[in-house]
Write a structure and sequence with these properties.
Elements lengths: L7 E3 L8 H10 L3 E4 L3 E2 H6 L2 H5 L8 E6 L3 H14 L3 E6 L4 H5 L10 H14 L4 E9 L5 H13 L4 E9 L6 H4 L7
Parallel strand pairs: 1-2, 2-4, 3-4, 4-5, 5-6, 6-7
């Protein structure tokens, strides 16, 4: 854990961790790292920056979670996060949704650790903020401990400051989102 990082965080959740929810959580606990909802690089670079990045100063410490796969676009967004006063920028390599997969980001990036490393390196070069990665324990049949370890080692070498592990694998083919949320049997 990075020095000064709260031991507890509230996971980024689409349609849940908006600024109102985060402020409510902050009122409950000062010892919590808050995350934004995942914001795609396209939405941020071509959309309303204040709408996507605005937050109340009482929300600190707060991390911006990004979704994307283009190192240059992610670097631009990391720079924006620093300019807006965020404490951390997080790359989502855990979302299994079909829409996210079609954009070639989220959990499907676990199959490409060198590409994720390039994204992290670009973000680090563009911003003074710590760059972190949220990922799954695996995707589809790429779920052995050695696979996850190779992913983490490769991305850590690029300068990832911390990993947050969604301790389930993501089934990217053959399951509906509802089926993907059921608890799989233990092996």
């Amino acid at each position: 854990m990075m020095p000064g990082t709260p031991p507890l965080s509230v996971a980024p959740m689409m349609d849940r961790t908006d600024r109102h929810f985060r402020l409510l959580v902050r009122l409950i606990s000062r010892e919590t790292l808050l995350y934004t909802e995942m914001v795609t690089t396209g939405a941020l670079l071509r959309g309303d920056v204040e709408r996507h990045l605005g937050f109340d100063p009482r929300e600190h410490p707060i991390a911006l979670q990004l979704g994307g796969d283009d190192p240059a676009a992610l670097a631009d967004c990391a720079r924006l996060a620093a300019d807006q006063g965020y404490d951390e920028v997080n790359l989502n390599v855990g979302c299994p949704s079909d829409r996210v997969q079609q954009g070639r980001f989220g959990a499907c990036l676990m199959r490409e650790p060198a590409h994720v490393a390039a994204c992290v390196a670009a973000m680090r070069a563009a911003s003074p903020l710590p760059v972190t990665v949220k990922h799954r324990i695996g995707v589809d049949d790429l779920d052995a401990y050695a696979d996850m370890r190779a992913f983490v080692d490769t991305v850590a070498d690029a300068g990832c400051a911390r990993f947050s592990v969604h301790a389930r694998k993501a089934w990217l083919a053959g399951l509906s989102p509802k089926e993907n949320r059921t608890i799989p049997p233990l092996r």
